[in-house]
Every structure is written in C-alpha cells, then in structure tokens.
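Subject: two folds for Thursday's group meeting

Dear M.,

Sorry for the delay on this. The cluster queue was jammed most of the week, so I only got both jobs back this morning. I'm pasting them in the order they finished. Each block is the input sequence followed by the predicted structure tokens. Could you check whether the formatting survives your parser before we put anything on slides? The first protein is the one we discussed after the seminar.
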Amino acid sequence: MKSFEALYTEYYDRVYCFLYRLCADGDLAEDMTQETFLQAYTSFHRFRGECELFTWLASIGKHVYFKYLKKNKLDLDSANLELVVNTYCDGCVDPEEHMRRKDVEKAVRAIIEGIPKKYRDVILLRIYAELSFSQIALVLKISENSAKVIYFRAKKMLVEVLKHEFEL
C-alpha cells in the first residue's frame, strides 16, 4: 500500500477537480479537498481495496460536499450543475440563447432536487467524478447493471422534462 503522502500527491488534483465541479468555488473546493483527505486518513484502515482509490476518495468527497450543503442549509440550487446542463443543451452563442440556457439550468436543478437520492448520487458520480458504472456500483453498493439503469432512467427523466418545458 502506498504511503498516505504519496496517495495525497497522486490524487489531490483529481479530488479537487471533482469537488470544484460540484461547488464552482476554488476556496471551498480546496477546503473540501482537505476535509476529504483528512477523513480518508483517519479511516484509511477501513479501505479494503474493493474499488480504486480515487473511487473511494470521490465517495468521501461526495459525502463531504453533501455535509457542507446540509450544514449550511443549502440545497442543490447552490450546486454548480453546469455540466449537467452542458449534457442536455447546446453551447450559448447569443444573449437569447444564454437566457434560455439559464432557464434550462434552473429546470435541471429543480429536477435533480426532486429525484430520489439514488438517482442524484449516480448522476453526480457519473457526470462530476467521471466514474465508470462499475466504480459507481462499488461506491453505492449496488450492481453495475443497477448503476447503469439508474443513470439512464435519471437521464431520461431530465431529457423528458427538458423537452416538455423547452421543446429541445
């Protein structure tokens, strides 16, 4: 097993980028990255090697992020969901398209807020952490097939609502 210092050096940037994509605030992402590694350090003895180290760290980071939202009485409206919007909306070119994009972003936030936690977790881990379905399955303790089904159902929900509301 690598020393924890080597683990920190190797995975710091990926964990930071994952958390930055969630919160869109460099200082907050830095703080949450430090908290993620602190929690990883104190619970490293429980890491059983059933998944990749980054998958395990991303799972801890996700919990740190949701703990931050809860502690600060925030919801997913405060989360940066730009990546989700980019998945379902073409790039902005003019001011009208920019406003449409903002409307789509607001709708996506409302949809994600309203879907069950298991869908939200899979969407965040797949899009923000860029985890594979097998890694998501390990983190959430579900089968890889379930992770795929949940992701595609959540994606379908998003697309259907967006098509209905915005005629995409």
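Second protein, same layout:
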Amino acid sequence: MATQQAEGGVPFSMVHNMQQFRLLELPAELLELIDTPNPPPLSIKSQAPSTVYGAPNTKPAYAVLCTPDKTFQLRQVQTSNSVLIARPALEAHGNEMPCPTTCAIASCTATLELHPADASAVAYLEEALLVYDIVDGDADTAGNGKTKTDTFSNVPLSDEQCESGWGDLLAFEFVGSCWRPSANTLSQVWKSINAAATAEGVRLDQQFLAEDILNHVRDEGFPATLVLGILQRLASDGQDRKGPWSCLHRTKTVQFVGRTLLEAKRGSADYLTAEFLDTWKDNLPESWRGYAELNAIEGSFDLPSPTTIRFKNGSGAANESKPSAPKAGSSSRKWHERFGRARNG
C-alpha cells in the first residue's frame, strides 16, 4: 500500500489490488423517485440467451434498469479522468499512533449512463411465447412451463411495457405455460363468441355479463383466459375491463374481426373480396353488419386483382401460426351448429 501525506493534510493511500466498480449516473427523475418515502422496486434486466437453429445465439445482450413503468438502457461511457473510489481508514506505521487516512480501493475508467428506452415489448414476446394454433379442433398444448412472471423477467423492459405488449398480442396463460394465439385461433374463438351471443340473445353492444359468454365458449374447449382477453381488448372506452360486466366497442370490434378473418386466410389462395365481405358481416352482431367496409381496415390488405383481397404482411397484431401436432381434445363446435341452424331456419 502506498501512502502520501502533505504537511497539515490528510494522509492518502492506495491499495495495490484495486476492486472492480462501475459508477452509475442517475437522471434527476430517477433520483426523485428513489428519494420518495416509499420508493418502488428497481430491477436490472436483460434478455435471456437464445438459440438459433439449435446453436447458441451470439448476438450480444444489453442490460436495462427498470422501474415498474419505465425502462432505462445502461450505456458504458469511458472517461479519461482519474476517478477513484475511496473510504476512510485508520493506518499506523511502526510504533506510531493510528491516524485517519483516505484509502483508494478502486479506480473507475468508465461510468454507466441511463437513457430512457420507450420501446414495445411485442417483438420480445413474439420470440418468447409459444404459438397456440387450433387445427381441426385440436391444438398442441405441450408447453414450456414458463409463467407470465418468468416470461417478463427475460424481457428487457418494465413490467408495464410488458403488460402493454402482452395485451397487444392477446397473450394468455394456459396449462402452466404462456401462449400467443394465431390469427386462425382468434378467428375461431371470435366466431364462437359471436355465435354464442346470437344463440342466447346477448347484445354485445350493450352491457352483458362476460361470464355468460365465457360459459358457452368454454364448452368448446377454448382457453377461458383467451376468451376474456378478447372481450377486454374489445371493451368500450371507460369500461372496467377487469369487472364482471362488458360492452364491446363497435369500431374496435369491426376492425378486429375484419383483420383477423383476413389474416387467418394468409398463405392460402387470395380471398374473393365479395366472399370476404360476406363472411365479415356474418361474424358481426346484426346491428354492426353495415360497418363491414374495406375502409374500416385500411392499410391491412392488398388488392392483387379487382376481385380478390389478401392480408398485408406486417399490418396486424395477430400472430403467424406455426405447425403443431394435435394434442388437446377436440371441440364440438355445437354453438356454431346451433347458430347455423337458427340462421338457416
């Protein structure tokens, strides 16, 4: 240990084996937050290592500091100044009395700065979540055992930003894992919701008990958490989305149904525009059929010919489905059958 002392000054020393430190520069808004009587928890997060075609992904991850609703990216900034971290100590040389001194225990050549990161969690969640796709009444339910909390812990964004992305994807928990529905699945679930409401005389554009719809749709084997997620997404503005009552917003519902039906046909032959419009109208509440017009989903479609229409890639929040082996029990679709018989009669 080296020691220097000037006449009338405080002795200063430096340890031979410096410790490793990084100084973190906090912005004013974060300082105010942690200085409150009940500061919220802070966390440092990073994306979990991933694999690409079975091999580890070498793409470097980065760390962020999160409050419950905000994210700050950590950036290392090199400095040419001599920055030392010191602590008080008592030192004695030979038979001298111990005297107070300042001892440098670390030298910091870089500091960490915080920069706000206002990003969407959708891309991270699309990578992390399994796709729930129903084919011929069956779906692969072999999950990965990761809960919603597990999933959020590996997304480098705040919990509030993760919740927003979760809602955008209509993600849900089911059989011990987290999923994002394919457009094909969303199309089937919505058809079941609309058919059950019609068969039971439930007006979706007025106050109704969500449990009434849920009970009927659950009989067809659809995850209850997904059904509730759709109803909450389409709820009218100002509606208590966590409450027992619901009332669907006309514009949200018309757009959601049109885009979902169109995306569910992606990858197959181009849709005849007239057929698509008829299908769209048939899957809306009776009073909203007249609002099924192409301008309601502007930007979500291409017109490859004067008579055909197809989904425009990258324009929707629904997800691309992946091939899956059927493992879940099949659905009876009895409410669709009842609705079909009622319409035909």
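Two things I noticed about the second structure. The mean pLDDT is 84. The longest strand covers residues 71-91.

Cheers,
T.
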